[in-house]
Design a protein that fits this description.
Length: about 575
């Protein structure tokens, strides 16, 4: 069977492209008449901006208050990123750390002593006798994961436990530790010349441990466990007044101007005495990828084709974007102004000079447009003075693998909330998947009733890492409080509990609105970034993201089983 098709193509009879490339205009008089008819000749905005004079006011943000309570403390934005200041965890020397971290810090102490001229062999044996990393009891060791057992088999008795040594120095002193090492059997007596390099080495080692991971004092913790988010205040403090910026809900890991709100003044506006700057700048046309080019025969970038974007008649935002991108983009100019990080700035006066020698005073949009839906981009909520906040935030950083992960979910079937811990830190320095660990409470199978009999079960069991959240009414509102279900045995050995989102000895007590219907995911991870002064910072942050819907725990109460059937329903 033959198929015949037809195609219509255009072509030219000539041998050259001279006429086509000329792009001749055949009726210029009609075009001029059409422009006159539409009023284009009456336009008064044909001048292009040639110069801009800007008068600016700037004031530094110099106060910080974590948690939204307490006194303001000094804050220098140029020395530390705001994310590090807010997100870093507290320094708790009594908190359990992984065996890997203990071994790494202990080995670094020997490297420091070697660099100071103190022979490591002279101190290795006493350090191992007094502060060696010791294996737990065999029963506890057998309950650990395979990676932790293998690591302890290699490290036990061979490395210094840096965490134990730091705790001892913190509880006593460096001199007491040196005496302890001497009692443990140094090769030679500890003389003044011998103790000097050891003392210096321990002091250098302590500073290295403190700078290795950025931590804050316990009273500087901005994390709110009842809401699973950060809260902090910033302030501009002068000799007479204080202007505060409040961040009541920060959890995304990305700090910008929209993360803070300004506290509305109850009295006169604060007098901040800002510094004044006068700038004479050149406006630059706005440019972006896919922008129509000004020259007629210049080839445009084919990677971005705005003409191929489809927009329905009622898709007004997309149609406005295309209108701007394709027709009015060359009418916009940008005036770049460098601002100090961690500051409040505002334009006091903006004068634009055009190509006709005219000078125009440009007022803020918030002053010229008083409509309720006026343009308020880059404006701080609660601010009536047109301040712009440039936070001391990071442009880019590195995020490590997730150390810990919990899911806060609703369970409509069981009429409960659940805090499900899916990942937690391991003693080997990695991450444990809780669903893959041996869990006796989830694996136990109750015996089935005999044939022809019935058995009553009070309730089914759920994995031990599923923590129920029961509603409780308090004066402050509805809460979801962590409860306990009957389990068959312990959850995990205490030595393995390195988690911080659901630490041992502190049950969750969440506000009811913090666990929506779609649930919430909360994670911990390492963050590493370089700041504008060249310094590097390492810290552990926590982030909250939307969840994945309702939970299905399989929890059932008042269960009656018939003999001859299957065992109880598994969660």
């Amino acid at each position: 069977m033959a198929t015949v098709g037809f195609a219509i193509t255009n072509g030219t009879q000539g041998t050259g492209l001279a006429g086509e490339l000329q792009a001749r205009f055949h009726d210029p008089l009609w075009t001029l008449g059409r422009q006159w008819q539409l009023g284009e000749f009456r336009g008064e905005d044909c001048g292009s901006p040639t110069a801009v004079h800007v008068e600016m006011e700037e004031v530094a943000v110099n106060g910080y208050r974590p948690g939204g309570h307490g006194e303001l403390t000094d804050y220098a934005p140029a020395s530390l990123p705001l994310e590090t200041m807010v997100e870093r965890e507290t320094a708790d020397l009594e908190r359990a750390v992984s065996w890997r971290e203990s071994a790494e810090t202990g080995q670094h102490l020997l490297r420091i002593l070697n660099g100071l001229g103190a022979a490591p062999a002279h101190y290795t044996d006493p350090l191992l006798r007094s502060y060696g990393l010791k294996a737990p009891d065999p029963a506890v060791l057998d309950a650990l994961d395979a990676d932790s057992r293998r690591m302890m088999a290699v490290l036990a008795g061979r490395v210094v436990d840096g965490a134990l040594l730091r705790q001892d120095i913190q509880a006593t002193s460096i001199a007491a530790v040196i005496e302890k090492l001497a009692a443990a059997g140094l090769a030679t007596p500890v003389t003044a010349a011998d103790a000097a390099p050891l003392t210096q080495g321990l002091m250098d080692w302590l500073r290295w441990c403190e700078n290795r991971l950025s931590r804050s004092a316990p009273e500087q913790d901005a994390w709110q466990p009842e809401r699973m988010e950060y809260r902090f205040d910033l302030a501009v403090r002068t000799a007479t007044d204080t202007l505060e910026l409040k961040a009541e809900e920060y959890y995304s890991g990305e700090l910008d101007w929209y993360a803070v709100d300004m506290e509305p003044p109850t009295g006169p506006q604060a007098r901040l005495n800002p510094a004044l700057r006068n700038l004479d700048l050149l406006p630059v046309p706005v440019s972006y990828h896919g922008m129509p080019l000004a020259r007629f025969w210049e080839m445009e970038d084919a990677r971005i084709n705005f003409a191929a974007v489809e927009a329905a008649p009622n898709d007004l935002p997309r149609r406005l974007l295309l209108k701007f991108a394709l027709e009015f983009s060359n009418d916009w100019f940008v005036v770049p102004v460098e601002l100090p990080v961690g500051s409040l700035s505002r334009v006091r006066r903006l004068v634009v000079s055009n190509s006709f020698g005219e000078r125009h005073l440009i007022s803020p949009a918030a002053e010229t447009d008083q409509a309720p839906g006026r343009w308020r981009a880059f404006s701080i909520s609660g601010d009536g003075q047109n301040w712009f906040y440039l936070p001391a935030a990071l442009a880019k950083g590195l995020q490590g693998k997730t150390l810990e992960e919990i899911w806060l979910q609703r369970d409509e079937g069981a009429n409960l909330g659940w805090a499900v811990q899916t990942q937690m830190p391991s003693l080997a320095g990695g991450t444990l998947n809780r669903s893959e660990l041996s869990d006796s409470s989830a694996e136990e199978i109750l015996p089935a009733p005999l044939e022809g009999t019935r058995a009553y079960r009070l309730g089914t069991r759920v994995p031990a890492y599923w923590k129920p959240l029961l509603p409780a009414r308090l004066d402050s509102g509805m809460r979801l409080r962590q409860a306990r279900l009957q389990t068959a045995g312990d959850d995990l050995p205490t030595i393995m509990r390195l988690d911080q989102l659901m630490p041992m000895g502190r049950d969750l007590d969440l506000y009811d609105e913090e666990v929506p219907a779609e649930g919430v995911q909360v994670t911990r991870a390492y963050q590493y970034a370089r700041w504008c002064d060249g310094s590097t910072h390492l810290w552990i942050s926590r982030q909250k993201r939307p969840g994945r819907g309702d939970a299905a725990s399989g929890l059932v109460f008042d269960l009656l089983e018939l003999g001859g059937g299957t065992n109880r329903p598994r969660p």
